[in-house]
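Kindly go through one protein, given below as sequence and tokens. The question is how this chain folds according to its tokens.

***
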Amino acid sequence: MKISSDLFEAFLKCPTKCRLRFTGEPTAGNAYAEWVEAQNKTYRADAAKPLMADVPANECDVAPLVKNLKTAKWRVAVDVPARVELGSSRGNEAQTSPPENSQSLLTSAATIETCLHAVERIPSAGRGQPTQFVPILFIYRNKLTKDDKLLLAFDAFVLSEMLGRAVNLGKIIHGDDHAMLKVKTSALASEVRKPLGKITALLASPAPPDLVLNRYCAECEFQARCRKLAVEKDDLSLLAGMSAKERQKLRSKGIFTVTQLSYTFRPRRRPKRQRDKREKYHHALKALAIREQKIHIVGSPELKIEGTPVYLDVEGLPDRDFYYLIGVRIGHGDSAVQHSLWADNVADEEKIWREFLALLEAVEKPVLIHYGSYETDFLKTLSERHGNQFQGQLDNAMKNAVNLLSQFLGEIYFPTFSNGLKDIGTWLGFAWSDKMLVGLDSISRRHDWERSRDASIKERLIRYNIEDCRAAEVVNAALQQLHVANQSKDAGSQPAEVVFVRSLKPPRKRFGKFKSPVQEFAGITEAAWWDYHRDRIYLKSKATKRPAISSSNGKELGPRKIYPANKVVKLPVPLTCPSCGGECTPSSYKRRTLQDLHIGKSGVKRWVVTYKFRSYHCLNCRKKFGTPDVFRSLSKFGRNLISFLIYVSIELQTPLWTVWKMMVRFFGYEMPAGTLYALRNSAAEYYQGTFERILQDLVSGNVLHIDETQASVEGKSAYVWVFASREQAAFLYAESRDGAFLQDMLKDFKGVLVTDFYGAYDSLPCRQQKCLIHLMRDLNDIVLCNPYDEELKKLVAEFGRILKAIVETVDRRGLRARYLKKHVNSVARFYKNLKAQSYQSEAALKCKQRFEKNRNKLFTFLTLDGIPWHNNNAEHAIKAFAKHRDIVRGSFTPKTINRHLILLTVCQTCKYMGVDFLDFLRSGEKDIRAFAESRRRRRHGRDRSVAVTSTAAIVSASDRVGS
């Protein structure tokens, strides 16, 4: 086994990298890793020249023989190969020795080799004092890490093993100025032996090490390969913020994947003493967001931007503490102004800093917004290095700069493996034009520009910086929207891709069939089922026999009860065929029983009717007849019973499984549970025509209200849309919320569409009226989020005054344009003043833009009769489905949801027309409007008869008094 300095260096970063280098795994390529390797080679050659120039030529050597190391005459040698064999026997003998005098941690025989960058030979100072050899390491970076010192200690360890005596001192030459650092290598000897022992065990093992992604992956040549494997395994190390200790703790619990981790999250209530403290970071909630691909919000995150936003992104060379590019984006949207301040060299850093301060000074109430801590360090470092010539407002702006990452960390969880700007910006829809230039690549590109002064490289870096500023703006806008949605109490206005943890409920415990790979367990668990134990084991254990009971799946275990008939109906005998009038051949008498309910004014009871009839066969037309109409559907259940089932299920929002239990307990009808679903499906088919007529009436009407809500269909998110007017409502199921079907459905609609502010409605080619209640609630939430924004308050108050006056007129006069037109002038003045205003606060600007965008859709009702200024008709209707969805708490199928929506359409339309839903079902009618008119005429007739009777009684009484 051969352990080289390259393997040792790789192991310090990642055991997997060490293993892959040892096995010769082909690399996928990494531009930054290749650049670092080239920098090391170039610096090593350049740094060796001045070192050799300081000594005579005859005292320098290149790649000397290591066998003659003790008798060497040179003072400086470069590229010195060093190699030592460490046998297993030697290592075993050293087990009892102190660790600093042996390589006891080596588990097997190994060859350790390195190529010393340079070695300085210090001749003996006198008798008894051996010649000293000082290893020298060349590092191109200006800043050193502990791994660099360990690499030097590794070289010293190999050299000491060759010489047979300790090498106590080493040197590192590094940076642009070739600075020299002396390192006491003897103090690091034990820290070298421990990794060597682990490396030998790693390379000797046939199994590869656990794949773990870490912060060094970005500079590794195996990055793409490891990332791909980690995604395939769904490894926990994909979560960038999780430490090795946390991963190990989860693995000890049997949690190895991100998906497994996502199921461990449980929403918990925070104690009162911790409500004012920042929410801790939940890795399980991050995993849940990734699994569901939705943003999850915990707590109440706040992001207040009171002033002009100034987005900041800085590029620099951390190795030199040099900032060469400052990106500043002032404002937001298309009106934003971008500035890119470039420094050719270190001397220009102060120049671009002064320019940056001057830009901020020209902005009114600047609010610096950046992403991550790099810009925080930039502001602090350059303020101390070059000073701040402006005080007051500018000084406060830099001290109160908004770090977007720290604002949402722990409270908003995006469905990305890391919280980096690139990952979150990409998920939000922002795309970088140069996908190859990310992170560390900007450092290598800057070095390339300093060497070549290529204008295309500079342009590429500036464009990358500009896009980072724009990405920060996108993230800020998303956080603002999430904050408003979090404050809103209207569930319909909350985005579908966002989940608020406060609305999550602990999963219910579900008891299902026991599944196990052990086949022998199956029979044991079946014998322990509750029904099996009671119905078989107990019966066999006792002499007395227990009565049969019904099972939970709707199948009877005992004989079905036969109830006596409440009524017997004997049908008359027809003389001729009702179709052709021909002679009929009768059969013998038959008896069939109809199971029904009797629904009275004060209760419901079981009602069994027995029919006696004869069936006939016409000799002329060959038709058969005689069977009662109640049995035409080949069903034994009466209309009242079916109507009662539909009423309880739809109107009273009771799950069918509960309805089945009620039918068994109160009426004794032990029908299979599946029969209820079949009866509901047949009822939906019966009212299919009613549903289509209602939908057609809505589309051809003068006013149409639309709203939508979410539903679960086969475990996936779908949407239920409601279309409503003052008298009717219809529900439709759609797989998505994009509203593409609305274009075809409403292409001939000539009326006014009343909706909320969802963007899918804006493209519909018809006049629209936006719900002003939605707008009022949104404006109220924005004011609550910006309590010190006087511009915003003034704007919202002015709109409130106009709306209040309009509503007062509606209350007195109704929705008649004759009286509402007087408010048109006040609305025009409002928009004229709005256009003349120049707002500075972002919240006021957004409100202004919203008013201007919807100018032709906010006050349509002022010029037309009967147009509401709110969307209450649709919102009230959608609640009927939402309540049923929340009660059932299950997932529909496309067929079941469509059938349910047909019956719900009939139910809701009956409510809007003032018709009792149960009475309509019992009537057998299909036209709700015709049924309502017949009931109204019957009621008016009854009222007239009562009035006539009362008048006659009064006349009679007066006659008696007169006599």
